[in-house]
Amino acid sequence: MKELDELLKGVEVLGFSGDKNIRIHTVQFDSRKVEKGDLFVAQRGVSVDGHAYIDKALANGAIGVICEELPQQLDEKVAYILVADSSEALGYIAANYFGNPSRLLKLVGVTGTNGKTTTATLLYELVRFAGHKAGLLSTVCNYIGEDKLPATHTTPDALAIQAYLKQMADAGCEYCFMEVSSHAIHQKRIAGLEFDGAIFSNITHDHLDYHKTFKAYIEAKKAFFDCLPAQAFALTNADDKNGMVMLQNTKARKYTYSCRMMADFTAKVVEKHLDGTLLRLDGQEVWTKFTGDFNAYNMLAVYAAACLLEFGKEEVLRYISMLVPVAGRFETLVSPSGVVAVVDYAHTPDAVENVLLAIQGVKTKDSSVITVVGAGGDRDKTKRPEMADAACRYSDRVMLTSDNPRSEEPEDIIRDMQAGVKPEYAGKVKAVTDRKEAIREAIAMAGKGDIILVAGKGHENYQEIKGVKHHFDDKEVIREIFDRQS
Known about the structure:
With 486 residues, the chain is an alpha/beta fold. It has 15 helices and 26 strands.
């Protein structure tokens, strides 16, 4: 139970009606979960307006309502709190309800189009190598110390975030690393969090179905840095053309990292191999178990952030050499006949290009590259032809197939992708709607030393079709087909 006044600390209240001296049982933004004595937060969502469910929340026992617009009829037994932004208010209320756990942790957020999961996960692993207990909130999985919890969103809702952080603090965690998506920033899910650091990886074509314009997408990322406190660090990729934009208005301590120019933290690729890369980090060479230039950036961001968290340089380099790839991020499988399959989460044009460039950089002269790629349904349609174009430019053969079609017809998605296939590439492209069959055909046409990229799903172990999730794991499918060949 919490006093209402205690929950409203940090919230800009525009108006109030009813009894302020009430004690709140729990906080809810879903009217179906409201019980007697709860505070209901009416949020305006993309497709649903919580204000339409205030009456239902009251019927279920809510004694307080946070809203941007007061109902026409007020119940004198209920406290109504008028705010400018219910979602932002929820962030602060959630933080207060759970005792502001972010203050008890060193909290670092990672944002950008690509690299968030790898960077956040590797920082989590690195501090654990150093003997510290840590938490992780990521696309692949959430961790409280060593306890693994399933992840449903890149960044959870405000109540879930604070609940996780409270569990981390109670479990003795000292650090938390979390992915911060543009949706979460725009929807104020991170309001009320006190970050010790923020990392920007890059920004490329994605989520325009939600943000509508690339400018709005950039501004969402930048808003994260704009709200950082002065004592936090703001670390940005200086090689990304929008990297320095992130630092324009932040109060935080500003740092840059680069693989191309002078920066606070630098890296250079010395040698490239299919099983790893020799990097020169701030002048010192270290072998990493990661492939590709894009992973050089990820490793550099991890190194820089660890140094900014005041770990010793030599110590950090030693841990960097011990880190292993994240599930579904450039994972390699080799068949008995010597065919290499790479499974990667690449689901944007830039990510597909980066992974294929990494493969081109390590393959032998006679090796062929075969790419199996699809695009998700009910998401940004404008990136579909660009993904197909990227696959065509850096592959010898391309199989266009299903990813998660969701409510769309897979054939319609593939047609959108085919629009990006230039006439000169048409002969090497085949459309196979069934993803398993597409993978099987790709493997069947590969010989010893050839490399197959299966892109788009990575760690996911399902396909979502017409609202139903069916078990599907790219790695399982590949292993099954490889085993049949042995």
